[in-house]
């Protein structure tokens, strides 16, 4: 057999081998991914049972996995996964992108006790934080979800938010912590509504937050309502979606009357506006 015949014969064998591999091998499943900004929420819909995000895990909500991203989470790529109702384990890449910090410089702040905070008030705020932090942190075991998305509005009507979630603030030139909620320009004395069924875990007057209510909605979701004129619920009380829990006010560190709504989900501080939209409008794993 000459060299030309050997080359042709080898080519035929290679072609047949490739055909055999194509016939007997199933095509590789394409990698799944989603891109989401800091302080936002991603979803993975379809027969979900259990969800995980790096080393944290939780149950799905009505068959969908939600992945809340903290407003301070480092931009980059992370691994998320889900277990389906059929027992299948799937993984995907979640890419966190940076949302720039809006700068708010509040000058001539009228409540000077919140600018130059006394040692007594610093001690008070530290004690209050020691109570709140365990309530809003991630927990491996949580109550089952008693809410669905989208959640209800915290006021009716609810005006457009001021877009200051995550803002970087200074008071009379002094830097302070980032703003952890969304402010809505609601006048004093208007009813404040629970965004979902749940249980009140704290209702108290706090130095920075003023009259404040925290509600546990299960599945690690905690809603926060700050600066109230008054509140009408107490700890361990069960509330329903749309129930009045207090009245809007201007207590605590505020420049004027408004409704502050904050949300912590599995320990992540997120923009509450993402829970008010149709879930299908969230970034989705594909």
Automatic annotation (TrEMBL):
Keyword entries, A-Z: Signal
Membrane-spanning segments: none
Among its keywords, does the record have Signal? yes
Q: Name one GO molecular function term.
A: metalloendopeptidase activity
What range(s) does the M23ase beta-sheet core domain occupy? Answer: 178-272
Please state the span of the N-terminal signal peptide per the UniProt entry.
1-20
Name the InterPro entries on file. Answer: Cell_wall_metabolism_enzyme, Dup_hybrid_motif, M23ase_b-sheet_dom
Protein name, entry field: Peptidase M23
Organism (species): Spirosoma linguale (strain ATCC 33905 / DSM 74 / LMG 10896 / Claus 1)
Q: Taxonomically, what lineage is the organism?
A: Bacteria, Pseudomonadati, Bacteroidota, Cytophagia, Cytophagales
């Amino acid at each position: 057999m000459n060299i030309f015949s050997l080359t042709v014969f080898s080519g035929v064998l290679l072609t047949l081998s490739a055909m055999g591999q194509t016939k007997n091998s199933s095509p590789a499943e394409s990698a799944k991914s989603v891109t989401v900004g800091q302080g936002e929420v991603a979803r993975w819909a379809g027969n979900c049972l259990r969800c995980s995000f790096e080393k944290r895990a939780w149950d799905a909500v009505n068959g969908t996995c939600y992945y809340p991203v903290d407003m301070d989470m480092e931009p980059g790529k992370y691994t998320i996964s889900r277990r389906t109702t059929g027992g299948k384990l799937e993984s995907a890449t979640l890419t966190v992108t940076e949302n720039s910090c809006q700068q708010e410089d509040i000058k001539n702040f009228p409540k000077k006790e919140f600018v130059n905070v006394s040692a007594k008030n610093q001690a008070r705020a530290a004690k209050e934080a020691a109570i709140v932090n365990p309530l809003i942190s991630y927990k491996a075991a949580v109550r089952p979800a008693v809410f669905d998305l989208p959640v209800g509005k915290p006021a009716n009507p609810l005006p457009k938010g001021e877009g200051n979630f995550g803002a970087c603030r200074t008071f009379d030139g002094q830097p302070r912590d980032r703003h952890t909620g969304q402010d809505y320009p609601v006048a004093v004395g208007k009813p404040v509504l629970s965004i979902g069924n749940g249980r009140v875990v704290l209702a108290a007057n706090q130095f920075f937050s003023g009259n404040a209510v925290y509600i546990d909605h299960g599945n690690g979701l905690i809603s926060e309502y700050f600066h109230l004129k008054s509140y009408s619920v107490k700890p361990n009380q069960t509330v329903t979606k749309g129930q009045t829990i207090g009245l809007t006010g201007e207590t605590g560190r505020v420049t004027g009357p408004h409704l502050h709504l904050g949300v912590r989900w599995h320990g992540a501080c997120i923009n509450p506006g993402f829970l008010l939209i149709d879930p299908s409008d969230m970034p989705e794993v594909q």
